[in-house]
Design a protein that fits this description.
This protein has one domain: Spore Coat Polysaccharide Biosynthesis Protein SpsA, Chain A (Alpha-Beta Complex), CATH 3.90.550.10. The protein is about 40% helix and about 20% strand. It is built from 10 helices and 9 strands.
């Protein structure tokens, strides 16, 4: 049976951290290894972590160089066959890790696995966000179909691509998934998408994806440049439009609908 290691990076997320911890520990799977890497929080985070200390494989609270470095260090300490991180304001749906464990146990060729997720808005409103199967060209030019909190991968894959890149602090998951996809480009059977809601991504004013959105773009551009995508120009636009069309067709073929872009801030 594959052992799963989960890392939670956190810094001053005491308002949400306990719910995240409980969503992990309540999964009830054998061999779960849970690591919390706190960046030296000054709120109630450490008090919360101490409540669950006996259930944790490791935890620390000290300056750590930022979220990416915290996750890297957490994975360095992890011993599981399957790795993932969940941020300290997100949640796993009940039963998710048992499903992940079954998928990896049943499919020896599997390296990268992901499900769907929901956006969790203040007040508790949830909006499901269905995804589609992985395609490297779509991911590179138009649309990342892998929701980070619903994604899991083998230790071997993580080590083969060199792990997370510590120079990225905002788009590091995009960089990692692109490198995963490129490495597995000739092995489509090694990537599996399951049509099931596995996590909740919390939307709030202080999350990095909301409050620091403008900081993501320079990193996105640097990552795209690594894969030979030009900064601008007709060819980039053509490839993006072609990938968007491919995305819509895949949604229709796999999900039976074509997604409609909503206004900013709306579900």
């Amino acid at each position: 049976m594959k052992r799963i290691s989960i890392v939670t990076p956190s810094y001053n997320q005491g308002d949400y951290l306990e719910a995240t911890i409980e969503s992990v520990l309540s999964q009830g799977i054998p061999g779960l290894e849970y690591i919390i890497m706190d960046g030296g929080s000054t709120d109630q985070s450490v008090e919360i972590i101490r409540k669950y200390e006996k259930y944790l494989a490791y935890w620390q609270s000290q300056p750590d160089g930022g979220q990416t470095q915290a996750i890297i260090e957490g994975f360095r300490r992890a011993s599981g066959d399957v790795l993932a991180w969940i941020n300290s304001d997100d949640l796993y749906e009940p039963g998710t890790l048992a499903k992940v464990q079954r998928e990896f146990d049943a499919n020896p060729q599997l390296e990268l696995l992901y499900g769907d997720y929901s956006l969790l808005y203040p007040g508790g409103r949830k909006v499901a966000k269905p995804k589609i199967s992985f395609d490297f060209s779509i991911t590179l030019h138009a649309f990342l179909m892998i929701p980070q909190p619903s994604s899991f991968w083998s230790r071997g894959l993580y080590e083969a691509v060199g792990g997370l890149n510590p120079k990225y602090q905002f788009a590091f998951d995009y960089d990692l998934f692109l490198r995963f996809g490129k490495y597995l480009e000739d092995r489509p059977e090694a990537i599996r998408h399951v049509h099931d809601l596995w996590s909740q991504f919390r939307v709030h004013d202080t999350s990095k994806s909301v409050s620091l959105q403008e900081r993501f773009m320079p990193e996105y551009e640097a990552i795209l440049a690594q894969f030979g995508v030009p900064a601008r120009g007709l060819m980039r636009d053509l490839r993006k439009n072609a990938a968007l069309v491919k995305t819509l067709l895949r949604y229709y073929q796999e999900r039976g609908f074509i997604p409609v872009r909503k206004a900013a801030g709306k579900a």
